[in-house]
Amino acid sequence: MNQALEGLKVIDLSRVLAGPYCTMVLGDMGANVIKIERYPFGDDSRSMGPFQGEESYSFAMANRNKRSICLNIKKRDGLDILLKLVEDADVFIENFRPGVASKLGIDFDTLKAINPGLIYCSISGYGQTGPYKDKGGYDIMAQGLSGIMSMTGEIGGAPVKSGFAVNDIAAGVTAIYSILAAYIYKLRTQKGQYIDLALVDAGLAWTVWESAAYFGAGEVSVPNGSAHRVSAPYQGFQTKDGHILIGAANEKLWKLFCEKVVERPDWLEDPRFLTNRDRISHREELEQVIQEVIGLKESSYWLPRLELAGVPAGPISRYNETLENEHVLSREMVINYDHPVFGPLKSLGFPTKFSETPERLNRPAPTLGQHSSEILLEHGWNEREINSLRDQKII
């Protein structure tokens, strides 16, 4: 069965997470991803545990469906190899600090002269322009500057980092749709283009309700715990033995919640709770009266009751519970495959379910430089030349 991006050639010089996540998804969709790893250490995430022998699980999770060549591009012969690989590539992606690609001789203008149709994507902490462009920027700094940390956590608490690398993944996802948009444009015009993408911008673009609050009312978003900024009740509550989520997020659901779930129809007449706007204005009082009722019984009492009434609700799962959940497993969001070092390995599955061009795991994450010889043979080098390059510490 064909895949959507078969025939798309991607040269990937990115490291750690944002860029590798992007190229992993392109590979999941069938692209030919050649991962250029820094000689002699490889991607920084290879040093991140847990490990089996010398191999990193962290690296394996973000680098399936790629081939690896470990290449010293600071030597002329190594740079020539990279330039040769670029000649017929569709996409080139890197996440150096601004200016580094130029110093290495692999900036957009240089590569465009070799391949005018090349789509070149640069991912950095702060972007290629602006007063912060030369700063080093990891995910946590991007969460800080984009305001995400200042609005995450419990009411009155200290700023809290998101539980996962949200700005890195936001940048990776943004890179995916930007590259695909540029590729569609290339199919129409034969023209490549440059994509400048920043972790800060990508995360900031996801703060939709928060920007509405500020631009529309001058309201600066602060931590709300699990509560929603513009809907109530839409948050977590503590039961007698745990926590559950309740989303009575419109008037129909609020009515069902009051009448069928908590059996408090009087709340429907309470002037504090008549509309969503009223409930947001009196959020603390609303939370208090709901909590007093929900806290009387166990989660196993409330969740079936909410479901029967048609009010969206659910548990707050620990991550291990998520990965063992019957629904998650039925959606094939945990997959099993064989890795040359790890042996049987579990990984996250594919979130998009295509009817005609499904994503699939064609190859496990590579060991460092696993495909150096294979890739060079495909591009015109012979075994003697490859052995010489290895002796010279270029591959």
Automatic annotation (TrEMBL):
Alphabetical UniProt keywords: Transferase
Source superkingdom: Bacteria
A Pfam family recorded for this sequence: CoA_transf_3
GO molecular function, one term: CoA-transferase activity
InterPro entries per record: CoA-transferase_III_domain (IPR050483), CoA-Trfase_fam_III (IPR003673), CoA-Trfase_III_dom3_sf (IPR044855), CoA-Trfase_III_dom_1_sf (IPR023606)
Protein name: CoA transferase
Organism whose genome encodes this protein: Alkalicoccobacillus porphyridii
